[in-house]
């Protein structure tokens, strides 16, 4: 093994090829090519097989990274895939969109020693894409069928991971989702240039082929009540994500041409599926030929600026109130956006939307500087007194999301939420204040990451299994 691994001294870190900025800015296909088999092997062989693998600590799923890197370096790809998929329900999706620089790769030992991290995400993607291509990823065939059932509200990463884990144990699983397709933000939030949609669709089809029922266009709280689901199923999981967009509080924010990020991204993703989208088709949510300003510095803002470029915007500017080093979005995505022609105005906070007869024409921004650190140690931005204007026909608000008022929506005041509206759970079981009702993903954590949604979904599924197993035992004893 030693000969095959530890190659970081001889083999430099490389990523899969990235398509040129000019070419990729004209379409919504992913920007990274797949690793060739030889390159994947060589990159995996750079791992030093640490006795204490920090990469694993940095992964929310505690993936057995050194093991599947070694197997990939040895060309044992089916085993690598089996190890990788034993802890992750969608490794090829995480490999594409986890912010690895802040998770597994950021703390890789050889990154810390200055040799450049092992490209863990790209290898993870390669292993599972290869498994799909080889036909190894098959529908789940549970060892035994159980009569008990679970109802899952939300077909995003948290709900899908839980559904898969429960089905593996033989439970009857129904997933209810307000949208017409599964995937949650994987489908309607994240654009195709980060995650092509057929990658998500094949996962959902596999779950359907595994016997999981999906009820789309079914908003719980409207079409069906939470109480009805509790009566129908033995356990219920709330995995509804967070969708209340934080608003822009400045003069002119109600002007025509000012849009919420998710409306904009959902319309674009729907067009990718070939759907009719009235607000896009009449031009309202289409950035073509417009000067676009996006306000925010997270992943959502990065997805908006890069979508606008692809729609043929005349100019795209991102305003963020802190500096580059302190933005929440991935540095990799900022670099991609810059290459594609996005202009960043760091340390800039919107003061007013400038309009003519109610139609947005620009943004007046205050120039900021970083002040004293706050209680969390983060430097707060403060105004310098200088302002400047940016012309805009379209302004996109990407300021983050809060939970919706679930106790009201579900007509269930006994469902406890915290002061931000996130559902309260007992973290050892993911159970909410309602017995038999569990919660996972963004609705528990606030806006987070796909990989944390998967982790929560898996944890909740395990607790639901334990509870249903105990119930089944208790009913058996009572019947004897
Ligand atoms: P969601 O994915 O939001 O899924 C919730 C599902 O519940 C939806 O399908 C919704 O229709 C359904 N639902 C809601 N209410 C109801 C109801 N009442 N009844 C029935 N169904 C309901 N994370 C990353 O790791 N990497 C990224 O690159 C990244 N990029 C992002 C880009 C954007 C634009 C956004 C908005 C987020 C991004 N994230 C990213 C975050 C990530 O998408 C989320 O953390 C993750 O999807 C949360 O999963 P979830 O299952 O909790 O919720
Ligand atoms: Fe890294 Fe994400 Fe994969 Fe974990 S799931 S190993 S954090 S890319
Ligand atoms: Fe390999 Fe880096 Fe993980 Fe160490 S920390 S086991 S070098 S991937």
UniProtKB/TrEMBL annotation:
Pfam families: Fer4_20, Pyr_redox_2. The keyword Transmembrane does not apply. GO terms for molecular function: 4 iron, 4 sulfur cluster binding; metal ion binding; oxidoreductase activity. The keyword Metal-binding applies. Residues 25-135 form the Dihydroprymidine dehydrogenase domain. Keywords: 4Fe-4S, Iron, Iron-sulfur, Metal-binding, Oxidoreductase. Residues 152-452 form the FAD/NAD(P)-binding domain. This is Dihydropyrimidine dehydrogenase subunit A.
